[in-house]
């Protein structure tokens, strides 16, 4: 595992898992939202966004956090592992709600130097992360299940984690293997 994309519906826990995975492997962590969003909630155009992805994934190893289906030809050009965080809808929605409320309460800037923050106004707008989570959950579930079984992607190792316990076990086993390989050298 050298080039890894962690995917999942907003609120699934993919960013938390991807950060922990990057730390465990001592790989750079790349957040696609940070590459995409500009100040004042302005979106990057595809050419600019794809160039940022190419630049960020030029290294020998990394953990990429994010979906952005239209970027697959770029982000998966030489990927070896895709990890799908696939918790149930209720848990995913609860996590998205909890995260949004926490960010609103603390005024947390979502991506450095953008000034982008969640707000109650945004939470209850047509651009709500909660509506996005509900809308995308069934679409992503079907899309990612199809990808896992796509013969043209057989060279990619797909890992599907469906619970917090599975995520923790995966990270623990990874740490154990890393220790064993350090002892062997």
Report on the structure:
- It comes from Gilvimarinus gilvus.
- GO terms for molecular function: kinase activity.
- Strand 3 (37-38) and strand 4 (42-43) form a beta hairpin.
- It contains 8 helices and 7 strands.
- 25% of the residues are buried.
- The protein has 185 residues and is of the alpha/beta class.
- It has helices at 14-25, 32-36, 46-56, 72-75, 89-106, 120-123, 129-148, 164-184, and strands at residues 3-7, 29-31, 37-38, 42-43, 62-65, 81-85, 157-161.
- The radius of gyration is 17 Å and the shape is globular.
- The chain starts with a strand and ends with a helix.
- A 5-stranded parallel β-sheet has the order 2-5-1-6-7. A two-stranded antiparallel sheet has the order 3-4.
- The chain has a domain at 3-87 and 140-179: P-loop containing nucleotide triphosphate hydrolases (Rossmann fold), CATH 3.40.50.300.
- Helix 1 (14-25) runs parallel beside helix 8 (164-184) and helix 5 (89-106) packs across helix 7 (129-148).
